[in-house]
Amino acid sequence: HIGLKDDKTLARRSSAIDLVVGGHSHTKVSKIQWQKNKRGKSIPVVQAWAHGLAVGSLLLEVKKDEDVRVLDYKLHEVDQTVTPDPGVANFVRSSVKRRDMSFPFNWNEVI
Question: Are 57 and 76 contacting, i.e. CB atoms less than 8 angstroms apart?
């Protein structure tokens, strides 16, 4: 959670990282950002935007003693056309109530 610029720096300075799934800068990364590492290997860097506005899906092929391969990456924007799942909605409502009882802050304030 260091921001896209630093996500790329992390990948560039590494020799053993296969993938960076970042955050913090709330950057909408619709297409994979590729960054060469110390060994010259291309490392995928992704972020799924901010505040639940999108959900990223990343399909990888991972085999022993081989490089991780990206098979597919999509950023799915969350808008009014997405039908809420009742079970997930109940879980979220319950979690918010428990959070608010333990931490009485204004959670809707953007800092």
Answer: yes
